[in-house]
UniProtKB/TrEMBL annotation:
GO CC terms of this entry: anchoring junction; apical plasma membrane; basolateral plasma membrane; cytoplasm
The enzyme's E.C. designation: 2.7.12.1
Binding-site residues for ATP, renumbered to this chain: K543
Entries under SUPFAM superfamilies matching the protein: Protein kinase-like (PK-like)
SMART domains per the UniProt record, alphabetical: S_TKc
Occurrences of domain Protein kinase (ranges): 514-768
Keywords: ATP-binding, Cell junction, Cell membrane, Cytoplasm, Kinase, Membrane, Nucleotide-binding, Serine/threonine-protein kinase, Transferase, Tyrosine-protein kinase
Keyword Magnesium: no
Protein name per the record: Dual serine/threonine and tyrosine protein kinase
Organism field: Fukomys damarensis
InterPro entries: Dual_SerThr-Tyr_Kinase, Kinase-like_dom_sf, Prot_kinase_dom, Protein_kinase_ATP_BS, Ser/Thr_kinase_AS
Record's subcellular location: Apical cell membrane; Basolateral cell membrane; Cell junction; Cytoplasm
Residues spanning the membrane: none
Length: 791
């Protein structure tokens, strides 16, 4: 449809932008891109034509209309290819930069860029243009060198005979020196630019377009999956936080109440116990400080009282003021000594009680989101009670009244006689009378009484504010539990299913649909097939799961997310990917194909075939290591059993089938697992990761027995219900004669009916190593001895 153009210089080129689009009939029009059609007479409108007239393709040099210069020539053609594709030919470089043209298109289209050249090398202008494109866009480009008509294409060049054009594109970063860049299909996730220099290879444009569009789909699926996984992780982490809040807040409140009560009782004991000490301390202080107090009183400079320097007598009012200031001096010194004695005891309690208690209160008040921390303030008042006791002559005690009576008598005597002169001897006499009038026992009783009163008041206020705080948390925790249930049962499963779908789309785009080989086994929820090769992994095992309902879909989706989120570990079976097969069973159902690492056999088959003692103990260590890793990631397996432990060709164990595996925060209390390996608390719906320790105890029984024969206590059970009832009542596997004493003790500890009494796997692991070193070393030294001889 385009005319054969005459060769010309790039500077003189005036060809406008051209767009081929679909239409029911062939027509040509001039239009501003994405806006409106221009009313303009074209040469193509004047009559019939086979190729588009050249004058319609060119922008006239004398045109001053900006719209006419920017307008593109739109050609509608009745062709099936154009139903979903527009072909845009960029204008000459002098009219509009190619970067701007691409910028107009990339937001609305998925561009497949072809760059045609008729010369053997890029011009300087071409290189600048390609550098600009690479700077602003990351699109690969299909480069096509148009061969000269008179030259017959030669044979393909060797690596050492690459064309100058090829080397230029390598230098610009469009082609790779290590990749063929010839359109051969590969496993690369990113589409690469391609150079074609022979006309018969132009067919590679189809391959290039396919790779480019597939890479775009992979990028979109990857971005979508990242969003799904990120949101799902947020929900799961939120569930952890909510569960922790539900568990820890009541314990914090109880801890706070208990510790404050202990603190209160300890301080009250101090107040009661210290009274005699206080009395002795006051007597001792007065005796020790008497001379110092008398000396200080003698040298005291009175405030707000004018004393004549010549020693003349002063008035009664000034005498009273002087006596009061001497008393205040004595009392302030005594107060300081008493407070220091009490504070030393309280500081010891502060170190013993208060640090954790204060932090606990802060966290409780912080979660309540209140600006004034009333409860903490009352706790501080309890602690500061010792700082606020006072020895005073105005305390209302009999001692004070007696002292004031003496002072009044002194003043009255002074009043009947002429007022005394305020001399050093007079000040010393007043101080001495005040000290001698104090009763140590009465003062100690008064001090301790003040201390107890303040403590009682603060303790009652603290208890009231804690009850108020507890009531506030009670309402908040009810809302938190409702939200936790929604996250666990609604939001997280729905997001997990979306994540599974986006990841499966990504995997099928990258690696295609796996081919099912021979059947390897069947489980409760799926069939396992052999898969020779998929995604660069071989051989593989393919687990086909057909979820019967929404709940199973959600469980499967969450299982997949947990498995994909786990870092690779040598004691867990690797999951390579997933594909959703919408045509499974002839289209009657949807199946999820989980492609995972293929191992040699399971532990059940291994024990039936016979394994040495050392191999079996190593398998036990491998299983413990795998469970420990799951627990470190916040996951509980909940279905540890013989058939979920797979062995490689060296008989090293890996844990598989995370179908019941969940974070503790996401567990709903559902009864799952294999009856023989199920801990008693699973039937109550309230359990934690110690159920895996119980299941390992049962598994270890089989490992030590060296066979797959059921324990007698379980073999006698006629049904699952009968078995569950017996397990709840304490039925456990019997001790076999071949068991080593330490092995038996370890089994019994693991399947203890009280979950907190079961050993941590971090303790089990070194115990197993010790057993293995002892038994296997003795077996090596005496090869004819079996496990039963090691007892």
């Amino acid at each position: 449809m385009l005319p054969a153009t005459r060769p010309g210089s790039e500077d003189s080129c005036k060809l406008r932008r051209l767009r081929f689009t679909y239409g029911t009939q062939t027509r040509v029009s001039l239009a501003l891109p994405g806006q409106y059609e221009l009313v303009h007479t074209l040469a193509a409108h004047q009559g019939s034509w086979e190729t588009i007239p050249e004058e319609d393709l060119e922008v006239r040099g004398d045109s001053k209309d900006a719209a006419h210069v920017l307008a593109e020539l739109e050609v509608t053609v009745h062709h099936a290819l154009l139903k979903e594709v527009d072909i845009v030919v960029a204008p000459c470089q002098g009219l509009r930069p190619t970067v701007d043209v691409l910028g107009d298109l990339v937001n609305d289209f998925l561009p497949v860029i072809t760059y045609a050249l008729h010369k053997g090398e890029l011009s300087q202008r071409d290189e600048q243009e390609l550098q600009e494109i690479r700077k602003y866009f990351s699109f690969p480009i299909f480069f096509f060198k148009v061969p000269k008509m008179e030259i017959i294409d030669s044979a393909p060049r060797t690596e050492s005979e690459r064309s100058p054009l090829y080397r230029q594109l390598v230098d610009l970063g469009y082609l790779s020196a290590t990749h063929c860049n010839c359109g051969a299909p590969g496993q690369a996730t990113k589409a690469l630019s391609m150079l074609v220099e022979q006309s018969e290879k132009l067919r590679h444009l189809s391959t290039f377009s396919h790779q480019l569009l597939q890479a775009r789909l992979v990028d979109a699926a990857t971005a979508l999956n990242l969003v799904h996984c990120h949101c799902l992780d947020i929900f799961i982490n939120q569930a952890f936080d909510m569960q922790r809040d539900l568990q820890i807040t009541p314990k914090r409140l109880e801890y706070t109440r208990k510790k404050e009560n202990e603190l209160y009782e300890s301080l009250m004991n101090i107040a009661n116990r210290k009274q005699e000490e206080m009395k002795d301390m006051i007597v001792e202080t007065l005796n020790t400080m008497k001379e110092e107090l008398l000396e200080d009183a003698t040298n005291m400079e009175f405030k707000d009282v004018i004393i004549p320097e010549n020693g003349e007598a002063v008035g009664t009012r000034e005498i009273k003021c002087c006596i009061r200031q001497i008393q205040e001096l004595i009392i302030s010194r005594l107060n300081q000594a008493v407070a220091n004695k009490l504070i030393s005891s309280v500081d010891y309690l502060r170190e013993s009680f208060v640090g954790t208690l204060e932090r606990c209160l802060q966290s409780l008040e912080k979660s309540q989101d209140i600006s004034v921390h009333i409860t903490s303030n009352y706790l501080k008042q309890i602690l500061n009670a010792a700082y606020h006791v006072e020895v005073t002559f105005h305390s209302g005690s009999s001692v004070t009244r007696m002292l004031w009576e003496q002072i009044k008598q002194i003043i009255q005597r002074i009043a009947w006689v002429s007022p005394p002169a305020v001399t050093l001897e007079w000040k010393r006499k007043v101080a001495q009378d005040a000290i001698e009038s104090l009763s140590a026992s009465k003062l100690a009783k008064s001090i301790c009484s003040q201390f107890r009163t303040r403590l009682n008041s603060s303790h009652e206020a603290f208890a009231a504010s804690l009850r108020q705080l507890e009531a506030g948390h009670s309402g908040r925790l009810e809302k938190t539990e409702d939200l936790w249930l929604k996250v666990r049962k609604d939001h997280a499963p729905r997001l997990a299913r979306l994540s599974l779908e986006s990841r499966s789309l990504q995997d099928v785009l990258l690696h295609g649909k796996p081919k099912l080989g021979q059947e390897l086994g069947r489980g409760q929820y799926g069939v396992v097939y052999l898969c020779d090769n998929w995604g660069g992994h071989f051989p593989c095992a393919l687990k086909s799961v057909v979820p019967p309902d929404e709940k199973h879909w959600n469980d499967l989706a969450l299982e997949f997310h947990y498995m994909r989120s786990l870092p690779k570990h040598e004691r867990l079976v690797d999951l390579h990917g997933s594909v959703i097969d919408y045509s499974y069973g002839g289209g009657s159902s949807i199946a999820v194909l989980l492609i995972m690492e293929r191992l040699h056999r399971d532990l059940y088959t291994g024990l039936k075939a016979g394994l040495s003692l050392e191999t079996r103990l190593q398998i036990a260590l491998d299983v413990v290591e795998g469970i420990r890793f799951l627990h470190s990631q916040g996951l509980v397996h909940r279905d540890i059993k013989l058939k979920n432990v797979l062995l490689d060709k060296q008989n090293r164990a890996k844990i598989t089938d995370l179908g019941f595996c969940k974070p503790e925060a996401m567990m709903s209390g559902s009864i799952v697992g294999t009856p023989i390996h199920m801990a008693p608390e699973l039937f109550t719906g309230k359990y934690d990761n110690s159920v895996d320790v119980y299941a390992f105890g049962i598994l270890f029984w089989y490992i030590c027995s060296g066979s797959v024969k059921l324990p007698e206590a379980f073999e006698r059970c006629a049904s699952k219900d009968h078995l569950w009832n017996n397990v709840r009542k304490g039925a456990r596997p019997e001790r076999l004669p071949v068991f080593d004493e330490e092995c038996w003790q370890l089994m019994e500890a693991c399947w203890d009916g009280d979950p907190p009494k079961r050993p941590l796997l971090g303790i089990v692991q070194p115990m197993l190593r010790g057993i293995m070193d002892r038994l296997c070393k003795s077996s090596f030294e005496q090869p004819n001895r079996g496990l039963e001889d090691s007892i």
